[in-house]
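Record type: ASSEMBLY
Status: queued
Input:
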Amino acid sequence: GAVVSQHPSWVICKSGTSVKIECRSLDFQATTMFWYRQFPKQSLMLMATSNEGSKATYEQGVEKDKFLINHASLTLSTLTVTSAHPEDSSFYICSARDQYGRLATNEKLFFGSGTQLSVL
Amino acid sequence: DQQVKQNSPSLSVQEGRISILNCDYTNSMFDYFLWYKKYPAEGPTFLISISSIKDKNEDGRFTVFLNKSAKHLSLHIVPSQPGDSAVYFCAVKGTYKYIFGTGTRLKVLA
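Status: finished
Output:
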C-alpha cells in the first residue's frame, strides 16, 4: 500500500507557541490529504481536507486560523497548530490519496503514524 | 449526531476464541464499509472492507458481515490472538470523506 510519513511522532510545547506537523507521501503524489484528530478513547474526527495548490476545506467547528494547513506540493502537507493551548493536546493523524474529488468505491485510506501533541 | 456507532467501547476475549466487534450506521445510502485497526500512538491500518452488494467478506482470520436491513456490520476474528489487541474502528465511505465510529478496544487474553 501507499506509504505516508508523518513527523514528528510526538511533541511537547509550551502554551502559546506554534507547532508544525508534516505529512509526506513517500511513493506517490498526494493530491488530497486529510487531517484527523483523536482525543483519548474517542473516534477519529476529520478536521480538514487539503487539495494540493488550493485552500483547505475545514469541517464544521474547526477553527481555520487555529489550525493552518498548507499543501503546497504533491508530496507534502503541513498542519500548524497556532498559539497552542492545553486543550489542543491530542493525537493528530494525516492521510493521503493520489486523486482529487469523490472517493472511489473501493478506495481505502492510508494513514500516517500520527503525532501526539502535548501542550503544557 | 453520530452516524456511525460502536456501542461497545471495550471487549475482552480469551486467546483462541472468536472476537465479534459490532458497528451500526444510520444512513441506508452508505455503500462501502471498512474496518481499521489502531495501536496506541500509531496511525490506523486498513484491515478489511465490504461493499453493500455483498453480505460477507473474508480474509484469513477476519470476516466482515453486513446486514443492510439492520444497518449493521460486524467483524469476526477467529481464532483471536494476543497480537490482535488494539482499537478497532469501523468506517463508512461518504462522497468525499470517511466517517469513523468511536472504536472498540479489543483485549485478547493469553
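Annotation: The CA atoms of residues 96 and 106 of chain B lie 29 Å apart.
Annotation: The radius of gyration of chain B is 13 Å.
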